[in-house]
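Open question from group meeting: does this chain pack into something compact, or does most of it stay loose? Before anyone orders reagents, we agreed to write out a predicted structure and look at it together. Recording both the input and the output here so the notebook holds the full record.
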Amino acid sequence: MEWNELSCLGQNLNPADSLNSRMMAPFDEEYYKALGKKHLNHGQWEKAIEALNHATKLNPNDAESFKELGKAYRYAGHREKAEECCQQALEIDPSYAPAYCNLAILAKERFQFQLAEQYYQKALTLDSNLAPIWSNLGNLYCLMDRPDEAFKAYQEAIMADSQFAPAFLNIGRLYYAQGEKELAQLSLERSAELVSDTKSPQYAEIYHSLAQFYEQNNQIEPAIPLYEKGLLLSPENIEIWKNLGKAYANQGQFKKAIGSFAMVMELDPENARNYYEVAQLYYHLGDLEKSNTALRQALSVAPKMTEAYYDLGANLYEQGDLDSAMMLVSQAMDLEPEYDLPYYLMGMIELSQNNLKQAYRFYERLQDLRSNWAEPLFNHIKTNP
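C-alpha cells returned:
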C-alpha cells in the first residue's frame, strides 16, 4: 500500500477557523494568513499563494506566514520557492520547528532521505511534542525500510497527541503490511473515528484506507459508505472513485459502478484504462454496443492497447462480425505475440468457418506458448463435424 504523506500543519491539523468567527481587520496580516490557510485546506493552491504573499508583505517578520506560503508553493509544484520560504521562516525564527518539517518533506520528495531525516530530527530537538513531525518521520522510515523505527515514531506521535488521526492511519498501514490484521483494523478504525466530524479534504485518505482494508478482507459492504465519505471530502479524488466503482462491480451493481467510472473518465480523460474498465462493466451488463464504444475510446487514447483490440474483437465475434473480429485480434497478436488469448479466439473464428487446418495451426501456437487455452481449443477442434 502506498504511503501518502499528510501535510505537517504544526500542532493542529484541523481546518482553519472560519474567517467569520474571528474579529480581524479586513486587510491585516492575520486576515490574509487565515484566508491562505483556508485555501490550503480546500486544495486551492494558487489562491493560497496569493493570500499568503499578502500576509508576508504586510508582516515580513512572521515565520508562520512564510512557512504556510512555502507549503502552498510546494503543493503547487514550485519547490524552489517553497524552500526559499522555509529558509526565510528560519531566518526570522531559527527555532521554528514546522519550517524544518516542510524542508524535510521537500528533501523526501527529492529522494534525499538522509537529509530529510536530519531535518525531522532537528525539528524534534526544538519541539518533541509535534505529532505531525513524528508521524511524517515514521512515513520516511517506512520509505527507508526501517519499520521498527517507523513504529516508534508513530507511537511518539500518538503520545504527543492521542487525537492525531494520521498517526493511527499510518501505524495501521504498517501493521497491515506486517500481517497484523486485527491491530491494523483497530488502528484504521480509530483514525476514522477521530475525523468523523471534520470536513477537510486531507482526511479523505483515512476513509479511503479503511475502505480498502475492508475490501481486501472481503468486507465490501462496509467499504462502500467509507469510499463515499472520502468523496464527500475530496470529490475529485480519482483513486477513490475508481475503488468505489470496483467495489460496486464486486457486488454486481454494474450500473452504479459505471456511474463511478463516468466520474473517473471525466477527471482523467487521457487514461485508456478507465475506458477499458467501463467496457468490462458494460459487457457484464450484456450491452455489447456500449462495451464496443468504450473499447474504441480506449484505443483512441492508447492505439497500442493489446487487451482492447482483443476484447473488441471478442465482442464482435459474439455479434457475428467475423471479418472485423479477425482483423482486430490479428492486431492484438502483432502487438503482443506472446499473448495467448488471441490465438485461442482466432482458432474459434476459423472453426466457425470450418477451417480446421487453420484452427489447428493456432492450437499448435498455443502449445508452443504452453498456454492453458491449448486444450480447450483442441477439444473444440475434435468435436467439430
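Observations to bring back to the group:
The CA atoms of residues 69 and 126 lie 21 Å apart.
The radius of gyration is 27 Å.
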